[in-house]
Amino acid sequence: MQGVDLSYGTAADAFVNGQRLSGAEAGLPAAITKVAVPEAHRRLIVPWDPMLAAEDVRRGLTYYGSGKRLQAVAAKLLSGEPIKLFTLGGSVTKGQGASSTKAAYPYRLSEFINATFPHSGHTFVNKGVGATSSGIFTACVEKMVEPDADLVVIELTINEHPVEPFTGRQRQGYEQLIRKLLKLPGRPAVIQLHHYAWWRSEGDGVGEGLFYFPQAEEQLTVMSHYYDVPSISLRSAIWPLMQKKIAGFRADKIWNSGQTSMGGDPIPVAGPQEKPDFFYYDRSHPNDFGHQVIAELLGSVVAKAVDEEQLAGCQPAGWAEPRNNVELRELPPPMVPGNADAPTTLCAMQEEFEGVVVEQAGFKYKPERPQEETFVGQKWGWTAEKPGAWLILEFDSRPDANAPAQFGNWASVYLSYLKSYEGMGTAQVVCVSGCECDKTVLDGTWEQQATLMQIHQFKVTQHESCRIKVKVLKAPGAVKQAGHKVTLMAIMVSHYPLRLDTYDRTAEEFAAKLKGEDEDENPTPHYKTSTT
């Protein structure tokens, strides 16, 4: 990796899996004075033995853009100032597959920055939450990312709908996430990180390693083009190495036993002596070496910005002067027509979500993964497993708690729930007092072999005490499963117009199936369900 130092450094102020690590406590020196950029060109050298060659890095950077915001980050580092880095994503960002927090890519990226630019004031915050798509982050990003953030990494591609159109709700939500981050007061640089899971990429007669699946990466990279946001592709960087079974990047075996392909075939397991040859811990997540590769890819982008910032006075090839038009600092209109910016007035998740439930029968607030070490990793939520169980959520659906409700105006509610391939059921969602809404049905079933938090979206009228009842139904979901489990994990409220008149065929068919239930469990003709 030419001119890039990703070497190990001392840990800086970090927030990993819900815990903040103080750089000062770690013994890092504080920068006493701001230092000028040295006359000699300052470069970053890989501090550990790198796995990637320069050619791999060049393949992995599928879009860089103008690099202006990244150069602002580089300028702070070069002048001796601390920066704030946030990583948002699913289980890969959380560190799944790595042997420890320090082996996961967010921590290793922090080591990279500290190796060349140590500062006790650096803040590295990991907001990775397993089994999440963009919906949670879109609604709650203002709570997760500090307003003066300098750099934000988004790793959500693997959990996004693989083939949804740009006008679909999930793509619209993802665009809103990018817009919210770019509009933060600190004007952070944003990097899209596209993870690739060899054993989950199947189709067109290929059981694993299909290069062009899922197609979400292509669509989200288009958003990089539109918003001038760098895009890193793990697939582009290392798929040729996987396909040729190059040591360190082989994907034909994994570390963890008991895993199956998407077609149900057992995945071979690497023996103890051959583990260093393979990239994945399981069928979805990288092992320690894989996390190192991701950190190297991300570090190379920062390194490129550092190089450019130090050559800012040069105009190679005689190009025109850099554009400093004030109007170019403003965000363009939404790429997806009609995808209006969405302010969020309520975001209750994790500990805060418990108190939103004011009454219940048959539900229990408990962790989905009790074996995890942190509260975030344990994925707490309200769960029921028998038809007839119910709970009531109470919240303020007004845009301003100090102003009266706006008659005739609606609020959009995002109810986060688990969706999985076994044991899941359905639930009716209805307003019972204060606000009004159409009855809707939440469906926790699907065919894909993954368990993810998804968003059930519906509209309510504005009221200071909006009460919603969620009741587990006897009716099966669109994919029949042996169970009725319903798990709710968060609620968000936003105020902006939404396209609620288009629903997928599966939802319509499911609605038809539910007709004929008893009155309490029969959705109205205005049936709507989440399109996740």
TrEMBL record:
Coiled coil: none annotated. PANTHER family: EXPRESSED PROTEIN, SGNH HYDROLASE-TYPE ESTERASE DOMAIN-CONTAINING PROTEIN. It comes from Chlorella variabilis. Gene3D superfamilies: SGNH hydrolase (3.40.50.1110). This is SGNH hydrolase-type esterase domain-containing protein.
